Amino acid sequence: VQLQASGGGLVQPGGSLRLSCAASGSIFSINAMAWYRQAPGKERELVAVITSGGNTNYPDSVKGRFTISRDNAKNTVYLQMNSLKPEDTAVYYCKLYQHDAREYWGQGTLVTVSS
Fold first, then answer.
1. Structure confidence by residue, pLDDT tens digits, 39-48
2. How far apart are CA 12 and CA 28, in angstroms?
3. Tens of pLDDT along 7-17?
4. How many CA atoms lie within 13 A of 110 on its CB side?
5. Residues whose CB falls within 8 Å of the CB of residue 106, separated by 6 or more in sequence, listed in order
6. Digit-coded pLDDT (tens) for 55-99
7. How far apart are CA 65 and CA 76, in angstroms?
8. Is 62 left (phi over 0), alpha (psi -120 to 50) or beta?
9. What is the Cα–Cα distance from 83 to 60, expressed in whole angstroms?
C-alpha cells in the first residue's frame, strides 16, 4: 500500500490550504484515515481522523479550523485547513488504518505558515 500526500506549501497567517492523500496498492478494507503533523523538535501529533462511517475527530488546537473528508471511491482523504497560524507549521503525514490492523504512513508534505 502506498500513500501519496500533496498540497503543502507556503501560506500567510490566516490563509488556507487543502491537503490530499491518495492510497493505492493492495488495500484491504479501510477502517479509518487520519492526518498527523510533526513540527521541528516536537513529537508527531494527531490532527484529524475520519472513520469508514464518516465520523471525525479533532484535537482542540485545530477544531473549527480544519476539516477532514474522504472519497471512498478514490481511497483519498483530504484536509481543508483554514485560518492557518504560524504554529500550524509542520510536516503533515497521512495514515491509513485497515480492518486487519495494518497501518500505513504517507511520505509527508510540508506546510509553512509565515508572512
1. 999 999 999 9
2. 39
3. 999 999 999 99
4. 5
5. 3, 4, 5, 21, 93, 94, 95
6. 999 999 999 999 999 998 888 999 999 999 999 999 999 999 998
7. 20
8. alpha
9. 14
Q: Strands, E, within the chain: which ranges?
A: 2-6, 9-11, 17-24, 30-38, 45-51, 56-57, 66-71, 76-81, 90-98, 103-105, 109-113
Q: What is the DSSP string of 66-84?
A: EEEEEEGGGTEEEEEE-S-
Nearest to 78, CA basis, from 17, 30, 10, 31: 17
In angstroms, what is the C-alpha Rg of the chain?
Answer: 13
Round to whole Å and give the CA distance between 32 and 21.
13
